[in-house]
Amino acid sequence: MNDFHPFGWYAAKISPHLPKKAFQPVRSRLLGGLAYLLVVTGGILAVSLFDFHPVWNLLISIVLGFSFAALGFLGHEILHGTVVKTPWLRDLLGALAFWPLCTGPKLWRKWHNATHHVHTQHEEKDPDAWPSMEQLAKSRLLRWVYRIPFPVRASFAFASLSVMFTVHSIRMLVSFWQDFRWKNRIVVLCQFLLPWTTWIGLLWLVGWEKWLFAFLLPLLVANMIVMGYISTNHRLNPLMPVNDPLANSLSVTVPKWVDVLHFHFSYHTEHHLFPAMSSKYYPLVKEQIKRMWPDRYHEMPMTKALAALWKTPRVYYEHNELIEPKQGHVYGTLGNGLDPDEIAPRRREEDAEASPATRKAKWKNASGAGKA
I need a labelling partner for 195 at 20 to 30 A (CA). Which of 152, 230, 243, 289 fits? Predict the structure, then answer.
C-alpha cells in the first residue's frame, strides 16, 4: 500500500452510507456505566465489611478489575463526546468513569484526543508511539533495556501490562504539564490527586489486606485488560507521516459478549476514523470499510495479535519494520510483510555479510551513541 489518506478522506466516503442517528450522542450508554458502578460499589463494600475466605475475595477482585476496565472504556467514549455533549457534564461523567484508573479528564483529552488521535503513529508527535532506532540511540534507558535477551524482555513486557496504563498516565502528566496554563495545571493536578486520595483513604479505613483485594489487585487486572487492547491498537503497525487509520491501526476480534461488556472497544480502526461517533455504531463502519477497502483493513483475533506482539520487538527500523537491535533481526509490520501466522525475521542487509564480532562492535557503538 503506497497511497495513504488522512482519516477525514475515509470518513467522507463512508459517512453517506451511515444512518443519521450514528452521529448523535448515545445517552443509553450511561446505563451500562451505572450497572458497573453498582458492581464496583457492591464489590468494594463486600470485601471491606465482610471477612470472606481469600479465594472469594480474589474472585471479587477479578470482577472488580473487569468492571474498572469497562468503566475506563466507557470513560474513553464519554470524553470523546459520544455520550453527552455538554462539556461540564462530559468531564464529570468521564472523571467518574476513569476514577478507578486514576486518570483525569482534562489530561486525557489533551493526551489522547488532541495529541494521539491527531498524530497517530507519528515518530515524534504521538505520545503512545514506540521508539525508532534513532530514538534508541538517544536514550540510555532504552539502550540498557535492549541489552536484555529478547525472551526475557518479552516476558517482562507482558507482565508489565498489569501496571503500564497507570505508569503511562503518570508519565503523560509529567510530559504535558508544561502545555497547560497555570490555572489549568491546578485542575489537572486535582483531577489526578482526588482519585488517589480516595483509594489511599480506603487503605486507611480497611487496612492493607482488604485494600489489596478491594483496589490493588483489581487495578492490576484492569491494567492488564485495558493494555491488552491498547497494546494491539498500533504496535504491529508502521510509523507514518500521514495519519491513515487503515495503515496505522488494528482492530481485534473478541467474543460478542465481550464486545458488549467492553463497549465495542475492539473496533479501533473504526474509532480512529470516527472518534466522535459512539462505538455502538462501529460494526456499521466496519461493514463499509470491508466493502470499500478490504485489502487495506487490518483485523485479527486478539489472541493472535498478542502472540504476534510476543514474538516481535518494539523498536522501529526504517519506520515500516521492527528490529531486534543487538542481533539485527528485522520483522515486518502490518501491510509491510508481517504474517501473524508465520512470524520470521530477516537480517539487515548491512549485517548479513558481517561477522559476529563486527555486529557486536556495531551494537556497542550504537549503544554508546548519545552518551554525555
Answer: 230
